[in-house]
Amino acid sequence: MPLNTALKKVLVIGSGPIVIGQAAEFDYAGTQACKALREQGLRVVLANSNPATLMTDSTMADAIYIEPLIPETIKRIIEKERPDSLLSTLGGQTGLTLSMQLAKEGFLDRYGVRLLGARPDTIDRAEDRQLFKDAMLAIGEPVIPSKVVTDSDDALAFAREIGYPVIVRPAFTLGGTGGGIADDERALREIAENGLRRSPIHQILVEKGISGWKEIEYEVIRDGVGNVITVCSMENFDPVGVHTGDSIVIAPAVTLSDKEYQMLRSSALNIISALKVEGGCNVQFALKPDSFEYAVIEVNPRVSRSSALASKATGYPIAKVAALIAVGYRLDEIPNAVTHKTAACFEPVLDYVVVKFPKWPFDKFVYAKRTLGTQMKATGEVMAIGTSFEQALMKAVRGAEISVNTLNLPAFAAESDEAVFRRVGECTDQRLFAIFQALKRGMTIGQIHGITKIDRWFLAKLAHLADIEAHFAALKAGATRPASGAGVADKTADAGNAADKAASTRAVGADAAADNAGYVPALDAELYREAKDAGYPDTAIEAMLGAKIPDGMRLYPSYKMVDTCAGEFSAETPYFYATYDAENEAAAFLAKRA
Fold first, then answer.
1. Distance CA 483, CA 486 (A)
2. What is the pTM for the complete model shown?
3. Domain end marker among 530, 545, 560
């Protein structure tokens, strides 16, 4: 099913100004879409109110309108340009909401404008909280006990039925705007009334609080004839209760058993098929850690913030593929731009780990409340790729430009153990660093898991980093490092004891310090390699060691390939990430093309 020849001119609505929850991720998607449509010979009309984006560059569309993104403006553009179609799914919530308003008014029908990407009934069933709940129950997908209400008194009555805490989710808003977690009636009334004001249809969902469950996302894509694939799975570092835009996110999902992974994947494919989305779709799940119980949190029937992450993480151009599907192509007709040998129906495979780290503006808004919840506060994000979670996380922290090159936040160094341990229970943008500091000071994985409900796998990886630093402290103080690998968190049978082992090693180092005045440490080659694999830069290693790294020992980066297929097919246009593997795939790729 090739390009729909009835289409000649497409109107694309951008995401507008860069605000919390809607930033450059949508500019990235819209730019891909505009390029793809013009390559098909279609005329593209672009409406976007933000002149400071690549999307509004004069080369991106045949006609560009930098105007307010409101119904009146879009109507005037349609009256003047007379497009035959409107692509609704690439401008974030702004584009989706505007498209729905024009469709419901009958304006699109009057001017013969076809809505591409997602039909009005699809958008309604995904965005309207009651219709969404009904749609999920109709196809046998579990949802969290909840009720859609249109006034705060009904919200309070339902909360009394199910008990506190409850989560409030307004309909048709972006980044969790207007939502929140309420622990009592006073908080619920305040959040509910705010959410009702923020919702364009004056509707909120009140649902039972399930804080502590894992939050998992699947990015899926479907064409017009029902072909559907999973592009990427993602897992939040934080459990349910923190907006996914404010959480560290890992791709692919790393703590799921195969049964859990396949169960949620099948559910995501079932949902996008039932909603009949044509293009990209993001499905968010809550998974109870100690059972196979899960619930569907929400579905975005459009390219979302997570789509940009999944696209960059896998090398799969989700927005481009979604745009081509919208104008008539099937997945098996769209070539893979990276391999030139496979089609877009080939599911990407990752042989590396991707970490997304949020960027918050608290350095500029020093009096803002740093607590994180269901309303997104991050204004940007950093993506890093590594061969391990530790390496990718350390890269991401450095990339966030928060003046640290490890997980040691200087502000915590002078705090007492009691103050640091208290911070572990405070869900703020600094909790990652507080957890790391607490591990270094002897708090166990079990204790931290009990407070935060963060999966033990992630905590064991942080304990591994703490253990590495403890070994450097011992080496610097003149103590002997334990036998090869001993005490390293993810090489021990009981990762929960890693922090205690590290604390013991630190104690040995401290005792030895008094007897080793003037001691110049000799760097252990195995420890150096372990630190580099875990993401420590040489400057941090030298600071921990208190000495220079010998020139003959210094390791230099090699570059590995992001090719969508884990090397199963040769790539023509891959990109690369730095690590310290013996094989340099970039050199081999360039030599092959020479």
1. 6
2. 0.83
3. 545
